[in-house]
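task queued by scheduler; priority normal; single chain, no ligands, no partner chains; default sampling; output format set to structure tokens
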Amino acid sequence: MNQLSEYTPRLEVSLCGRDWTLDRAADLETLWESMVDDDFDDDERLPYWTELWPSSLVLGEHLFAHKEMIVGKNCLDIGCGLGLTAIIASWLGAHVVAMDYEFEALRFARKNAALNNVVQPQWTLMDWRFPAVRPKSVDVMWGGDIMYETRFVEPVLSFLDHCLVSGGCAWVAEPNRNVYNEFKAQLDKRGWKSRKLRTEKTSAIYEQPSKVTVNLWELSR
């Protein structure tokens, strides 16, 4: 992937042995300016979904390398953003529900699946605090860079408890943030097992002096 020096409305990404095209909001500055005061309340509806985070790149390659674990399985992408990991999983043959908190993210994600000629995942507007998923119905779930505030720890763990089948697993990719220490501590208290699958230094989509460290974890009972 060629690193960018500025925001662009279209991204071209080489991943999992092929090229992917991702469209996003045309003008990030206008998107920020259009936000109203309510967007800055406790839920902070900030347009993080417009970016392609390094954690998603690592997670996408992991899905590709372990496709035998998701082919034909019921899978859930938590906080799908522009849709890359959900699209990759669908391309690999998984049955994917992809959720996000922001409608605009889902609109672009659906467009991106069409751009890449991939079977559409089931795109779903959802807040993990209020699961709209049948209990114990998901074989594998994943999220890239979703854990960036400690207040997310409790609802995300409850959401995992609600969704995963017995013997299911979740993959979480995170850029070495301190908040993950609290997440892991709560996992241990709830009887979850967590193991680090890999630590990788990967490039961000924008030019910067050094690569980003991303940890990939597997969570299971």
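post-processing summary
- The longest helix spans residues 103-115.
- The mean pLDDT is 91.
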